[in-house]
Every structure is written in structure tokens, then in C-alpha cells.
Amino acid sequence: MNDGMESLGAGPRRGRPLLSSWLGRIGIGLSVACGVAPPATGKSPRDNRTAIEVTGSSHPVIMAARKGTTAGPRREERRQRAEARRGIGRKPAGPGPARPERTTTSVARPPAAWKPSVVMSQQHTDACLVKMGDQFPAIQVAGLDGQQQPVVTNGTHYTLVVLWTSQQRYAREQYRRLPREVLPILPGPDRVRLVAIHVGDKAETVRQLTENSDPRIQNLWDRDGRAWHALAKDRLPRTYLLDPSGKVVWLDNEYSLSTVRELTNAVHFLLDPQPRSG
To answer: How confident is the model at residue 187, as a pLDDT?
Structure first.
């Protein structure tokens, strides 16, 4: 009985050396196949496996077995070079000159402006009731004081008309960015008027949205959307650049980086006596 129990209890202890022996044989076989000298005898199979892992070899199986071991000298050198490039471990150079605050994200002036053009899908084109080259309607829109004011004043001024609404995220963003991204493009109020027409909503809401606006922006309120629907069937925001006669010389039915770029080009082409292309 005791012999039986001892034989049962010895089973797991006998299995461990057997597994280590097999691992050792596999490791020695790999080292021989890859041309690596097997380790010195007199060590356990586990020591043989460790020695094979540390032994230098470019064989993919050996390289896979070496994963997780301590990084070699070359890897350490690469890490130090990478840290040196990123400035890790360097002493701070001290406070340098203060960077100027970024006041605008507008696109830089083009070196040579090109003739303005408008490219839209057929669906967006069909939604435009007033297109490039058309005369802007002689519409009047109420100011925040309730008095009707003409959008276009024939004379020597260009007019930039922006239709927006607080109920559309991109339209709100365009109005918010007018002082930072659009006004710096314009030569000045003596040459270009900036008219922002809010479509819909209540008078009190519009006043709250525009009470801190730049004084160079003329804020109007299209309460029932009549002015908007005289220009387009849908989609806000919309931007129109008008010449002194009220003709549309450029427009867009969205607000994005391309809007700012194309508007910058149109302003410089039409108002700035600089080199032109096209």
C-alpha cells in the first residue's frame, strides 16, 4: 500500500525532469541547426535552454526565443540615440523669448491670386437661387433695433454677406470665428463691409449672441427667413462676396478651411493689386 502511494506521489516529481529534458533536447537541436555551439555539459536541461536563448544568433526561431530578455548593447545604444534626438535627459535651455499669441487661423495670403471660381455638386448648385455672377436681391433685413436696413449699398464698397443661425453648429462656429479668420482678410471697413444675418430665433436670443461682437460686423436679423429663402432653398451657413454694384463675385454654402482659403484668394484677386495668375 505504501509502495503504491509512493509511486503515485512520485508521478508529478518524475514528470518535471522529463519535461525539462525534452525542452533541453529541443533547444540543443535548434542550436545545432542554426550553427550555434551547444553549451558546456554538466548543466541541467533548464540551464541549457537559458544558454541557448542568450547565445547570439540571427535565426528567427532563436530571435523569437530571445524576446523578453535583457536588451543587448546595440538596442541600448539605439534607445540612447532616440532619447538624445527627443531631448530626453538634456538640461533645460532656460526661458526663451515668449511666443506671440496666435490671434488668427486664417490662411496666408497667396503669392499669386487666381480668378475666383465656385465648384459645387449638382445638388448644391440646384439649391442656390442666387449663383455666382447673379445680381444680389435688393432685400432689406431688420437690425437689432428693429429698423429695416438694406443689405447692399451701391457705391464703392464691396460687401461680404454671411448668413448663419444659432441652431446649426457650423454656422455658429463661422460667426464665432469671423473676428479671427475673416476680418483679418478684409482690407478694412472703408472698402469691404461685413454683414452677418442671423436667420430665425427670437430677438432676445440674437441680441445675446451678438452683444459682444466686433463693432466692424453689421448684425442683422432675418426673423422669418424671408431673406434666406430669397437666396437659397436650404443649407446654412452661406457666404456671399458682392462687388460695389451688388453682383455676386464669389460664394460658398459651408464654412471650412477651403472657405477661408477661397475667400482669401477672392479678396486679394479683386481688391489687392498684386501679381495674378489665370
So the answer is: 87
* Backbone phi and psi for residue 166, each to the nearest 5 degrees, phi listed first: -75, -10
Residue type, 34: C
Tell me if 229 sits within 8 A of 137, measured CB to CB. no
Q: Where are the domains of the chain?
A: 2-72, 116-277
Q: Quick one: pLDDT at residue 188?
A: 82
Q: Model confidence over 207-251: pLDDT tens digits?
A: 888 988 899 999 999 988 999 999 998 888 999 999 999 999 999
Confidence of residue 45 (pLDDT cuts 50, 70, 90): very low
Percentage of the residues of the chain whose pLDDT score is greater than 90: 32
71, exposed or middle or buried, with CB in 10 Å at 0-12, 13-18, 19+?
exposed
Q: pLDDT class for 81, splitting at 50, 70, 90?
A: confident
CB environment 11-46: b (16+ within 10 A), e (fewer): eeeeeeeeebeeebeebbebbeeeebebbeeeeebe
Q: Is the pLDDT of residue 82 over 80?
A: no
For 116-277, give the CATH class: alpha beta
